[in-house]
């Protein structure tokens, strides 16, 4: 085989360089102009069947239709949501890995000394999704019937009462901390990888109570599978009109709602973020999503909150607020 002359060699090198550039772009999927060209993984940092998973699957369908590719839910649970968030933080910043997370994004820095990511520096917010009320619910075998009876029973039997939550920094854990602080007692906490599995054991009577989002409790309450004691919002909610607020039950300090947002790794191109934010806005305006959320006690955020700017502002504020609350609680 005769060696190619100088002109032919240069042509070969040029062609190989061009091929290299194309392969590099394809491998990193980093061509924002053509985004999206492939399915998108959306990481849910809690178990399947729980409230975070439920909200994610509600918006994944209309977002997939808008983007023209599938949003594939990946449940990566553990450690109050920090395992899944950590995996998202180090994903390729090409728009093909998105994270759905909630208030736990803002509490983790104050709770985990060895947190593998910085919720603000390592991510770009895409937009807020919904803010979900919480309910205090008990197993059908649990003795108390009203919220007042629940308060007295827990205070008088703290050494034998068990409370489920989804790991340190999860919404159910935070609500539980507020509850214990207000009642002035410590009960036995039983951690799960999500309140999906926790609910199964609550219904089965293996654990006494938990504080969980209406997106996971409304159906069980309506079906009579669990006892409902109170909702953690200032006013009663339309989906559960007979459920009193914690304030009506004499505990105004137990007030918490779980805000949710979408994130991508920090280096993801802005054009990609815009595509995702636009698709999120379409999903939140979708009547099916509005109705599904209403049935489960919540609602999409307003359009001006489903933006990177509004999301970044809330995340900053909440990280500072929970840092102060948790720091004070730990004598910090
Ligand atoms: C879940 O999706 O399992 C919940 O969000 C867990 C929690 O934060 O309580």
Structure notes:
With 332 residues, the chain is an alpha/beta fold. Helix content is 43%, strand content 18%. Helix 2 (51-67) crosses helix 9 and helix 4 (104-111) runs parallel beside helix 11. The longest helix has 23 residues, at 6-28. The N and C termini lie far apart (76 Å). It binds D-malate. D-malate binds at residues 46-47, 50-53, 102, 104, 166, 170-172, 194-196. D-malate (MLT) binds at residues 46-47, 50-53, 102, 104, 166, 170-172, 194-196. Pfam families: TctC.
Care to give the gist of this entry?
It comes from Promicromonospora iranensis. The chain has 332 residues and is of the alpha/beta class.
Query: Number of helical runs?
Result: 11
Give the overall shape, derived from the CA principal axes.
globular
Structural class: alpha/beta
Unreliable stretches covering 5 or more consecutive residues = 21-27
Name the bound molecules. D-malate
Largest sheet, in brief, is: 9 strands, mixed
Strand content of the residues, in percent?
Answer: 15-25%
The total number of structural domains is: 2
Amino-to-carboxy terminus distance: 76 Å
Mean pLDDT figure: 92
Q: In which range does the helix fraction lie?
A: 40-55%
CATH class of the largest domain: Alpha Beta
Assigned CATH architecture of the largest domain: 3-Layer(aba) Sandwich
- Could you give me the name of the CATH homologous superfamily of the largest domain? Bordetella uptake gene, domain 1
Organism: Promicromonospora iranensis
Signal peptide: 1-30
InterPro entries: BUG, Bug_dom1
Keywords: Receptor, Signal
């Amino acid at each position: 085989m005769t060696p190619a002359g100088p002109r032919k060699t240069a042509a070969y090198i040029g062609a190989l360089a061009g091929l290299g550039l194309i392969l590099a772009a394809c491998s990193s999927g980093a061509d924002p102009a053509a985004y999206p060209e492939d399915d998108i993984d959306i990481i849910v940092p809690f178990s399947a069947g729980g409230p975070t998973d439920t909200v994610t699957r509600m918006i994944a369908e209309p977002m997939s239709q808008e983007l023209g590719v599938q949003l594939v839910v990946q449940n990566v649970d553990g450690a109050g949501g920090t395992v899944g968030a950590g995996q998202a933080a180090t994903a390729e910043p090409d728009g093909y890995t998105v994270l759905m997370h909630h208030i736990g994004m803002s509490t983790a820095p104050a709770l985990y000394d060895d947190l593998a990511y910085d919720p603000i520096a390592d991510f770009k917010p895409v937009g807020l999704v919904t803010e979900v009320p919480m309910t205090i619910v008990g197993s059908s075998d649990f003795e108390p019937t009203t919220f007042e009876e629940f308060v007295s029973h827990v205070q008088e039997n703290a050494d034998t009462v068990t409370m489920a939550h989804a790991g340190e920094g999860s919404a159910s854990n935070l609500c539980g901390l507020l509850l214990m602080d207000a009642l002035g007692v410590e009960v036995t906490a039983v951690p799960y990888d999500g309140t999906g599995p926790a609910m199964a054991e609550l219904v089965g009577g293996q654990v006494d109570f938990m504080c969980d989002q209406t997106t996971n409790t409304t159906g069980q309450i309506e079906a009579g599978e669990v006892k409902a004691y109170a909702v953690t919002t200032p006013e009663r909610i339309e989906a559960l009109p007979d459920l009193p607020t914690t304030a009506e039950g004499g505990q105004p300090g137990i007030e918490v709602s779980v805000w949710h947002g979408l994130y991508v790794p920090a280096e993801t191109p802005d054009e990609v973020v815009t595509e995702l934010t636009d698709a999120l806005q379409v999903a939140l305006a979708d009547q099916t999503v509005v109705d599904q959320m209403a049935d489960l006690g919540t609602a999409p955020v307003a359009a001006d909150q489903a933006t990177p700017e509004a999301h970044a502002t809330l995340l900053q504020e909440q990280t500072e607020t929970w840092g102060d609350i948790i720091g004070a609680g730990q004598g910090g």
